[in-house]
Amino acid sequence: MTTLSERISQSAFDGSRLRVVLLLDLHDGAQQQFLEAYEHLRNQVASVPGHLTDQLCQSIENPSQWLITSEWESAPPFLAWVNSEEHVKMVQPLHACVRDTRSLRFSVLRETSNIAARAPEPPKGRLQANPRVGDGVVRHALTFTVKPGSEDKVAEILAGYDSPEARVDDTTRLRRTSLFMHGNRVVRAVEVQGDLVAALRHVSQQPEVRAVEEAINPYLEQDRDLSDPNSARVFFTRAALPAVHHVASGSARPEDVRRHALFYPAKEGCGMALARMLARQDELAADDPDCPVAGSTIFQRDDVVVRLIDMRIPLDRDPLLSLGIRGSRKTAVLRRLLDTEVAGGLSNDRELARFLARCDMALITDRRSAGA
After folding, report:
1. pTM, two decimal places
2. 1 Cβ partners below 8 Å, 6+ apart?
3. Which residues have CB under 8 Å from 90's CB, separation 6+?
4. For the purposes of burial, counting CB atoms within 10 Å of the CB of 264, is it exposed (0-12), middle (13-18) or buried (19 or more)?
5. d(CA 164, CA 179)
6. Is 356 left (phi over 0), alpha (psi -120 to 50) or beta?
7. pLDDT digit string (tens) for the chain, length 372 residues
8. What is the C-alpha separation between 366 and 345, in angstroms, rounded?
9. Phi first, then psi: what are they for 156, rounded to 5°?
């Protein structure tokens, strides 16, 4: 069995309270406009299920620097809200006031209260049970769709670009970029050592990447203008596909595994439940030292669920294992969460193999930086 010290993990599904920290640097003279936009925003956020409280703070050293903290019963309701179209529209008035932002999300592990003060009402939600072991890597993905019929051209463009400079600064570097397609949907998964925001900003400024982004513009289903900061911000906000769960043994060598991505056709409104179920199954698999799945990362936004897996065996050798389910009972649960018109049946080995083949995304490029 893999011990806690050996397993690398992260998860949005442990049920613990979530603390969100948003750092903002305002444009000069934008304070009043920002406050008015925030007042309108906070009244709307207060009614979002799972939201507990928030605070707005201003720096005592630099009045242009502000901080918004919020607390949530757990991560899933926050992720459902922050990734919604409603949120994209809601925060638009803030962007005109802000020069730069950075969002950080933390599970609450411990807390201390003033024993001399009157005991506060216990907050809802529970604390994170145990600290997780990290590997210093941040995992994130972007997804978008291209016009039907343009898939081969887009794949050619995305496969042919030169890799950008991996080193961002003294503490941040790009480790790996894995790019897949499923029909007309593109998924680009990145691994970053250090600061994800700094890495994404670095990549967006590289001439090789800018040329590729401009080349695929005519084929995108969602229009964008990368020369317009607001248009680019809205596009990449909608394209964000957060990593909601990751687990790995930490012992597999890159040359011993092959990376795959599976796209799960979730039933409408069931994306989060599907991602949670797959996360539980991957946790169980990680306890088995003989399991050929060396690592798994689940990305989810709304009903888009993608599971990235590093396999020691061919994907089709064990369809159940590759799909992240064990036994008939879990297969039945998976069936309830899928769009069965797309997924088909899962009642026998042939149907499971057919479904796995449908889920398997086409690998366009998988690039590692030196030493990753």
Report:
1. 0.91
2. 287, 288, 289
3. 41, 44
4. buried
5. 15
6. alpha
7. 444 446 889 999 999 999 999 999 999 999 999 999 999 888 889 999 999 999 999 999 999 999 999 999 999 999 999 988 888 888 888 888 999 889 999 999 988 876 665 555 656 678 888 888 888 899 999 999 999 999 999 999 999 888 888 999 999 999 999 999 999 999 999 999 999 888 988 888 888 888 999 999 999 999 888 888 888 888 888 999 999 999 997 666 777 889 999 999 999 999 999 999 999 999 988 888 888 999 999 999 999 999 999 999 999 999 999 999 877 788 989 999 999 888 888 888 899 999 999 999 999 999 998 866
8. 31
9. -60, -45
End-to-end CA distance of the chain: 26
Tokens matching residue 235: 């596009």
Chain Cα centroid distance, residue 357: 24
CA distance 280 to 148: 35
Instruction: Give the amino acid at 172.
Output: T
Residue type, 126: R
Within 8 A by CB and 6+ apart from 233, the residues are 95
Q: Which two tokens stand for residue 248?
A: 């790995």
At 266 the three-state DSSP class reads strand
**How many secondary structure helices (H) and strands (E) does the chain include?**
13, 13
Question: Which residue from 268, 347, 344 is spatially nearest to 305, judged by alpha carbons?
Answer: 268
Cα–Cα distance between 189 and 239 in angstroms, integer? 12
How buried is residue 52: exposed, middle or buried, by Cβ count under 10 Å (0-12/13-18/19+)? middle
Enumerate the β-bridge partners of residue 100. Answer: 25
- Residue for token pair 């019963």: 73
203: helix, strand or coil? helix
Q: How far apart are CA 337 and CA 280, in angstroms?
A: 15
Whole-angstrom distance, CA of residue 275 vs CA of residue 251 = 25
